[in-house]
Amino acid sequence: MEPTVTPIDATLGAVVTDLELARMDDATWKAVEQAFHARGLLVFPGQHLTEEAQVAFANRFGNIELLAADPEQKAVAISNRKPDGTIMGPDEHRYKSLRGNEGWHTDSSYMPLAAKASVLSAQVVPSAGGETEWADMRAAYEALDEAMRRRIAGLSAHHSLYHSQAKIGHIVQTGTGYGFHTKGEPLRPLVKVHPVTGRPALFIGRHAHAIPGLDEAESEKLLSDLLDFACRPPRTYAHRWQPGDVVIWDNRCVLHRARPYDYRQARVMRHTRVAGDPATELAPTDRDERAAAYEPSASNR
Ligand code: OGA
Ligand code: MN
Fold this sequence. Notes:
This protein has helices at about 25-40, 50-60, 95-100, 135-145, 145-150, 160-165, 215-230, 280, 285, 290-295; strands at about 5, 15, 40-45, 65, 75-80, 115-125, 130-135, 155-160, 185-190, 190-195, 200, 210, 235-240, 245-250, 255-260, 270-275. The chain is an alpha+beta fold.
């Protein structure tokens, strides 16, 4: 039986039911992949995947991006609850990274190879808040007026996690965890053409800064004006999680952010990230300097 794909009342997103992600036949997988390309974000309520099944589902979309030093670890906890069961305090590094997720972003754009997709599942949810929200950058690009499209054509921005975390007061030393182990700042065009659908999309978010050719103030203003304009209805959807829900989104054309909640309560999510295809997700700046960009001592700032 084909799964039921119900579009969300926004320019992106669909809720997919009448399937078990852990046991898809070929026809079901084809329907899911097609819906992923059409809608950019798929919500699968009540799947309760094991970690292994979540990794297997993500793996259908491509290679798993390793977010931890351990190559066996293909899923990571996005959680304010520590392994000992206590809740993180506001001064902890991981807590600041979680708060950073509250700014609109796309995953791994600050890495030489940006992510294709991310899978998130809810394990423990707070009593209120803690939604995840997504915004459709294909529809945002389409909604720009001609003058703005002309202005941004040919512009690129640097992407940096040091920069985006510094903006919320989190100053991080090189070498302190994922995204902080390289100094390279990939330069990525503001308009990205989707490798499968061919649709142009804005490629912006909190990691983007320092547009070459503009001074710092102009660059910040352009990027924040674009973000403000882009992340509005009907281009957004916020999901109120139930434990067991699984979501996948396309980082190549969709931004996302976490919404606040009472941080004294536990919120435990499981994240698996699908690596980008180097042919289309490797930053143009890095195509010639692949080796240098992956080298922790690279200093191309
Ligand atoms: C992520 C992320 C948002 C959330 O896992 O990449 O940004 O709502 N998560 O936890
Ligand atoms: Mn994220």
